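Pipeline run #58 for the internal structure catalog. This entry was flagged by the ingest filter as a single-chain record with no existing model, so it goes straight to prediction. Upstream metadata was stripped on purpose; only the residue string is passed forward. Reviewer on rotation: M.T. Logging verbosity set to normal.
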Amino acid sequence: MPAINSRKEYVENSYYHIYNRGVEKREIFQDEQDYSVFLSYLKEYLLPKNESKLNQSLADEKLNSKEKDRILKLFRLNNFADELSLIAYCLMPNHYHLLVRQTSAQVIDKFMNSLATRYTMFFNRKYKRVGPLYQGVYKAVLVTSNEQLLHLSRYIHLNPVKLASQGVALRIQPSSLPEFLGSRKTDWIKPKEILEFFSTHIPNLSYKAFLEQEQDNDLEILKGLILDH
């Protein structure tokens, strides 16, 4: 029997919770560079490709061969800016969570295959290892209601807090929480569709207040949508 959530139902114009963890629950992010590289790949895939600027750079007669190769690789690099939006994310030492919205029915599969392959190649090269990095194929679960969407964003952002409460020592984990709290703006993260449900001028109706509310019913609302640690 396939593992839970390994069968994926792809629907256009829909939200998905995407997650995976390291094989044997091993750490897939071991230092700051690992987190930074993974995020840089997300940025390159999700920001629109500026082909005009790339062409101008290629036309520079002073361009050296190394820089020319880099620009040509950027030309060939997959880009999903027109078909997929990253709403929220959190990167943990041995797993990650992405909340995305896709407009085309099959773009998630292309996006995740590119991301997983590219990061695995980086990780294996850096740590001189071979073989799969992840525990099977990524999981992608369809979000079916606004209630699930809101509670899923909270679950993702509070992931580090939950593990810390279990005695797991964590650094400040990379996540989209600063974008949701208004302390950082990132062009390739799109929190607006969730933040529209909250107030920016009434504190007890804000997203921050939502984060701080009791979460007794979250597991029931998110049943089948989240990772068992």
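catalog note: The chain has a mean pLDDT of 87.
catalog note: The beta strands are 14-21, 84-92, 95-102, 139-142.
status: ready for reviewer M.T.
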